[in-house]
Records
---
Amino acid sequence: MEIKNYVEDAVIEIAREQTATDEHISHCERCFMDVVVYALNKLKPMYAVSDEGYIFTEVRLDSAQMKAEITVAVLEGIRKVKEHPHHA
Ligand SMILES: [Zn+2]
C-alpha cells in the first residue's frame, strides 16, 4: 500500500494542458517541473491510501472548484518560471 498525494497527479495533468502551447516549457522538463513544484507548494495536499490503483479514501479532484484552484496555481507558476527560469 502507498500513501499518495492526489493533488500531484492533478497538477501535472493541468500543467501539461496549460503549457502545451508554450514553446519553451512544453519542451523543457526543468521549467515544467518548476511549474509543478510551485503549484504544489501553493495548494493543500490531499493524501489517500492507494493499493494497486484502488483508492480507499474518497478524493474529490474532479470537482470544478478544485480544478479551478489548481489551474490558478499552475498559471501563477508558469508566470514565475517565465520571469525567472532556473537555467540560462
Ligand atoms: Zn526551461
---
Amino acid sequence: MIEKIRPDRVVKAVEMIDLDQLKQSGIRALIIDIDNTLTPHHKDVIIDSKLEWLKDATTRGFLVYLLSNNHANRIKSISSSYDLSGYGFAFKPFSIYYKKILKDSGCLPHQVCCIGDQLLTDILGAKLHGMASIYVEPISPRDIIFSRFSRWLEKRLMIKKGN
Ligand SMILES: [Mg+2]
C-alpha cells in the first residue's frame, strides 16, 4: 500500500517543478489539483507565481487539466476564469476523470503527470492509473474534514523526499 502512495518526486511548491525536465521525460499532459496546490483552501484565486508556472506550461505545449474533488460549480468557475480545462467532483483516486482525460488528450498513462498535495487522492490516483506523480507541500493548513483525516494518515506514513 505504501508504494501506491509514494510519489515519484516531492517538491515544496508547484512552481519549483522543472517543466523542461518533465518534457524531456516524455510527459505531455499535467493533471493538477487545485485546493492547497494552486489556491489556498476555499479561495478561488490561483497564487500569482503558480499561475505564471501554469502559463509557462501551456506555452510549452503541455495539456493542462485541473482536477478536484471539490464542488463542480466552483471548479468550473475557477478553471474557466483562467481559460483552463477543469473538473470538480472528480472522485480522485477513482477512474472516471483519469480515463476521460486520457481519452481527451490522446496521451498514454506514462505521458501524464499528476501533481497535488494529498497522497490518498492525488498520488494514489496517479499510481492506480500508471501515471507519473509529484507531491507538493500544501499551501495552507486549513482543510476540509476528509483532508484532515488524510493528512493525519499521511503523517503516519513515510514520504521519501527529494527523489
Ligand atoms: Mg489539494
